[in-house]
Structures are given as structure tokens and as C-alpha cells.
Amino acid sequence: LWPVRGDVWELFLTRCPAGEVSCDTFSFCVFVAATCAPHFWLHCILTATLPNITTCLVSGDYKMNRISDLIDLCAQNKKALLYAAAVGLGTLGLGLLLKSLHKKSPRKVSQVGVVSELIIYAVKSCKGLHVQKAECLEMGLKYGELKDRHWLVITEDGHQVTGRQEPRLVLMSVTSSDESLCLKAPDMEELNIPLKLSNKNPIVNCRVWSKDIQGRDCGDEASLWITQYLAGERTYRLVQFESDMKPRRHHEHGSKVVYPDDSPIMLLSEASLEDLNTRLERKATVGNFRPSIVVSGCEAFAEVMRCVPGSCVD
């Protein structure tokens, strides 16, 4: 193939990422066949003689001026079509054979820790919900219909409200039932609001750590409930992030982030917490850091040195 299409190998290398030249053998064969075979078959049809195929391989002179000429020649020479079909099947068969012979080295996996806790904070700054299993998605954990930090309390002008400004938010718990989001808080009746909001609810432009992001307003009833619970002079509203909205982007590693402070998933190891507590008079707990995933069985601060694909965990 080299005399015919010497540029094929160069083109193949340029399309392979650095360090990944050892591509799947079958993929390479298909690539070469797709690039070379059309010209090769065309020459077979034009010549209809096998001896001249060698000349084709060396000279590389196999251009066609008009498609109509090709159609006429195909109709006149069925033998040439058989040659072309044989070449195609042979190329495909060679690729399949090489693929079966090519054995990929098994991926080595080593245990670096054990997940001990999974926690969902549906509303930013609310009490965490401990779960036994969760989906690990690009923009955070998901448990049933609850997605981590996909609801946010805001002021009327769209600025986020967290436990830093309103500490009582951390006592508010969130669960889901059927198709409703259930809000509970001390001295408040349980409030159920739809998980699927009406398109009539307005979309609000929010401000989270100096970056703009949208959210759909959860309605006046939710606003009144939260405002009464926080017992402040201001009016608060609750918004929900929807899948068709544009998330924020982390300024360093580019991860998609909804309403969390920094990253879609925060990971904390028990060893790191224990190490920290040796330096503190008043012991810290997991709740102080509000992680999504807690890991045991690793060295202290090992989580700082590792990255989740697409998002550094910090």
C-alpha cells in the first residue's frame, strides 16, 4: 500500500492523538481500505485485467474524469465488478483476521479506597440526605429524581443565599416523593412542590460566585414557605436548574458546575478529617465540609492528588 498512497500513513498518524499511535489494528485497516480501495477498485473496473493491477499500484495513475464513464464501464464489464468486490471482501476479511489476532492488554485496576458515605444536598446549603447508592453524573450525584445542588435559594434580585448568610438553611431537609420535592424544617409544615415545573414559571437569572446561571422559579408557595422559615425582612425564592440550561464553567479545569461553590463533586477522605482533628481543639465533622462522597481506607489527603475524568476533585 505504501507506493500507492504514501500519504495514508502520514495522515493516519496526524489523526491519532499523541501517545496513541498503537491504535486498534482493525481501525487502521478500515482507514487504509477506505482511503485506498476506491481508487484501486476504479482501476480494476477500467482495466478489467489483473496484470495491470500491479501497474496501478506503482504508478498511482487512477483518476476518473466523469462519473458517467464509470457507470457505463460497470455496465459493460461485469468481470471488473467481480474483481472490485473480491478486493473489498479481501480487505475486510484481512481486517477482521488481524482484529481477532490482536489482543489488547487488560486494564489494570488498583483499589485506592472504599466509599463509606454518599450524600445528596438537593438544595444548596440544606441538610444532606445520606443514600446507599447514587449515579455519578457529569454535574454531580443523582439519587432518584434528586440531583445534588440543583435547587438554590435566592434573593429577589437573583443573588444566591447560602448557610453563610442564613445558617438556618442547614436545618432544612429535602427528600422526594412520587413527583414532588418535599421540604421540611423545624416548626414548619412539610411543603411539596412539583419536581417537573410548569413552563409558565419564569426563568430567573441568578448570580453564583460572580457568575451568571439560570434557574426556573419554583413558585410563590415555595417562596412564602422559605421566607417564613428564615424569618427575615427579605423575600426569598427557590429556583431549580433544568437540563436544557447552561451550567457554569470552572475557571481552571473547565468542569460544568450548577450551583455548587467549586466542583460538581466534592470528595473527602476519613483519614484527612482525622488528620485535621489532631490539630483542632473543637473537632470537625463530615458535615462541616459537605462532601458528596466520603472515602475510607486511604492515606490522609490522598484525594487532593487524584482527579476524576473531566473534573479535578479539590
Evaluate the radius of gyration: 31 Å
**Shape summary:** extended
Uncertain stretches: 1-26, 48-64, 307-314
Question: Main beta sheet, described?
Answer: 4 strands, mixed
How are the strands of the largest sheet arranged? 2-1-16-15
Share of helical residues: 25-40%
Mean pLDDT: 78
> Could you say which structural class the secondary elements and strand pairing correspond to?
alpha+beta
What order do the SSEs take from the amino end to the carboxyl end, as H and E? Answer: HHHHHEEEEEEEEEEEHEEEEHEEE
Residues in β-strands, percent: 15-25%
From the N-terminal CA to the C-terminal CA, the straight-line distance is 50 Å
Number of strands: 18
Q: Number of helix segments? A: 7
Structure notes:
30% of the residues lie in helices and 23% in strands. The protein contains seven helices and 18 strands. It has helices at residues 6-15, 25-47, 51-59, 67-76, 78-101, 220-230, 270-277; strands at 114-120, 129-131, 135-137, 140-143, 146-147, 151-155, 173-177, 180-184, 191-194, 203-208, 211-217, 236-240, 248-249, 256-257, 267-269, 293-296, 307-308, 311-312. The protein has a four-stranded mixed β-sheet. A four-stranded antiparallel β-sheet has the order 6-12-11-10. Helix 2 crosses helix 3 and helix 2 (25-47) runs antiparallel to helix 5 (78-101). The longest helix is centred in the first third of the chain and has 24 residues, at 78-101. The radius of gyration is 31 Å and the shape is extended. Residues 1-26, 48-64 and 307-314 have low confidence and may be disordered.
